[in-house]
Amino acid sequence: MDPRRRQLLQSGSLGLLAFTLGGVELLLTPREARAKALPFRVLRTAEVASLEALGEILVPGARAAGIAHFVDQQLAADPADCLLLVRYLDVPPPYLDVYRPALAALDTVSQSAHRKSFSALDEQAAINLVRTMSETNPEGWQGPPAPLFYFALRSDAVDVVYGTEEGFERLGIPYMAHIRPTAKW
């Protein structure tokens, strides 16, 4: 992992992010943004549903931790400040050009195989599709390489679920940030 990214995550930058509500900028965790049902800036409704469902399969707890709000906020940010793993994989911005086609491809493949959107699949069907995309492009996939998207989003989901003081606690790992956050997440 890029040392700057690790430092940002450990220093608490993943804990509080700037979200806008009614023209007012709020500092919230992705979990709080989700709980307040803050509007998305770049992601569409179907993309949010697929992203949350995929995040939940990759890392249980990602939906409640606010994976979609985190990704949306990062996609709307200046690419130089983006914390999404795809930035560190030398993928040129804009990163929405990775997420949008990959989420569309996921739904297209799901519709083709199961006649349902990915977010409507039962857990086992979703796991099977995700297992395939972790290794190769599923049949009919039109978008960035599925294994690349799988890898990047899995890392983003891990960051959202476990990259906080609370996440470290759930893992039983002492939280030893270089700069301790000023507020509890």
General description of the model:
With 185 residues, the chain is mainly alpha-helical. It has one domain. It is built from nine helices and two strands. It has a two-stranded antiparallel ribbon. A hairpin with a 2-residue loop joins strand 1 and strand 2.
Question: Key features?
Answer:
185 residues; mainly alpha; 9 helices; 53% helix
Structural topology:
Layout: H1 3-10, E1 17-21, E2 24-28, H2 30-35, H3 45-58, H4 62-65, H5 67-76, H6 96-114, H7 123-135, H8 146-162, H9 165-171
Antiparallel strand pairs: 1-2
Based on secondary structure, the structural category is mainly alpha
Spatial extent as radius of gyration: 16 Å
Taking the alpha carbons of the first and last residues, their distance comes to 23 Å
Largest sheet, described in full? 2 strands, antiparallel
What series of H and E elements makes up the topology? HEEHHHHHHHH
Poorly predicted sequence stretches spanning 5 or more consecutive residues: 3-14
Count of individual beta strands: 2
Percentage of residues in DSSP E strands? 5-15%
Whole-number mean pLDDT:
88
Short description:
This protein has 185 residues and is mainly α. The chain contains nine helices and two strands.
